[in-house]
Amino acid sequence: MSTTTTSVWATGQQPSRSQRQGRYLPESMRHPGKMLPAIAAQVIDTYTRPGELVIDPMCGIGTTLVEAVHLGRDAAGVEYEQDWAKLAVANLSHARRRGATGTGTVFAGDARGITGLLHSLAGQAALVLTSPPYGSATHGHVRSTRDSGEPGIHKRNQRYSRDRGNLAHQRLPVLLDGFAQILAGCTELLRPGGVVAVTVRPYRQQGELIDLPGHVQKVAARAGLVLADRIVCLLCGLGHGKLLNRASFFQMHEARKGWTRGLPIHATAHEDLLIFTKPLAVPATDHMSNQPASVAGERG
Fold first, then answer.
1. Burial (Cβ within 10 Å: 0-12, 13-18, ≥19) of residue 84
2. pTM of the model
3. Strand-strand pairing, 226-234 and 8-9
4. Could you tell me if 237 and 14 are in contact, meaning their C-beta atoms sit under 8 angstroms apart?
5. Measured in whole angstroms, how far is the alpha carbon of residue 196 from the centre of its chain?
């Protein structure tokens, strides 16, 4: 485990599809909100050692879990959507067939109750790695319909949940409250000094830029976590002295429309990686006697 980091990680040298080629089942590409495998792998390699436990409370198709078991770590994930949970299990089985030495487990359920779902792992995790939901739908995959004689685009795989109970369907304040609850639960699964890593990027809603990384920092503080580092994980590639753009069709489309209106909108080229730590336990003291205070019970 290395605790020395650089401010920029070149995690986008290969496109997402190339990073997953052969390492994940082909149907994994259907999920519209996947974490880049290169980001997950570098986080796990930097902040954990072989044999340690990695947890993802919203694991989707299992990117965090797959990269962890390939690096010889054990992993546990929670996923609300049954279909994605089943695919995460299938991806873990695929990883084992490809020689992964770690073990992985997936629990289907709501991560807001993660302490109940993973109660047997309390105080054991070295790392929690996850990403918050960005809403009920994302841009998904796009194909031009120009060849069919009807100019336009065809979207597919842009929705990862139709269940209104999914946290992704909630308005931003409720979503953030739910994410704070998830992070608070994750702190109970972490060992003292453990790390929480959150990959997150800003997004636009009706033209307004939402500072989701800033919001995540605030809710993490509410959960008792301490910000330790902020790293840029590139989604673009670096080559021949320039950036190799990997922005989606819709990112480029919105940027071009903005420039036409005189607004200097740019396509997203990186994810913020926010690193938080769980503080080492400090005994509470009674202000009157300056002696350790007695503890009547634990928070459930």
1. buried
2. 0.81
3. parallel
4. yes
5. 10
**φ, ψ dihedrals at 190, nearest 5°:** -75, 145
Reported as a single tens digit per residue, the pLDDT across 114-173 is 999 999 999 999 999 999 987 554 444 445 455 555 555 444 444 555 666 777 777 889
- Measured CA to CA, the distance from residue 50 to residue 33 in angstroms comes to 27
Q: Does residue 89 contact residue 107 with C-beta atoms inside 8 Å?
A: no
**Band of pLDDT at residue 48, cut at 50, 70 and 90:** very high
- Encoded amino acid at 220, one letter: A
- Rounded CA-CA distance 216/183 in Å is 10
Q: Are 12 and 246 in contact (CB under 8 A)?
A: yes
Are residues 59 and 111 in contact, defined by beta-carbon separation less than 8 angstroms?
no
**Distance set, CA 269 to CA 16, 115, 177 (Å):** 13, 35, 28
Tell me, letter by letter, the H, E, C secondary structure of the chain. Answer: CCCCCCCEECCCCCCHHHHHCCCCCHHHHHCCCCCCHHHHHHHHHHHCCCCCEEEECCCCCCHHHHHHHHCCCEEEEEECCHHHHHHHHHHHHHHHHCCCCCCEEEEECCHHHHHHHCHHHCCCEEEEEECCCCCCECCCEEEECHHHCCCCEEEECCECCCCCCCHHHCCHHHHHHHHHHHHHHHHHHEEEEEEEEEEECCEEECCEEECHHHHHHHHHHHCCCEEEEEEEEECCEEECCEEECCCCHHHHHHHHHHHHCCCCCCCCCEEEEEEEECCCCCCCECCCCCCECCCCCCCC
* Residues linked to residue 129 through DSSP beta bridges, in sequence order: 197
Closest-CA residue to 83 (of 185, 199, 166, 197): 166
Residue 170, token pair as written in the block: 């909630």
Q: Which residues contact 173 (CB under 8 A, 6 or more apart)?
A: none
Overall size of the chain counted in residues: 300
Question: Which position has the token pair 């040298």?
Answer: 13
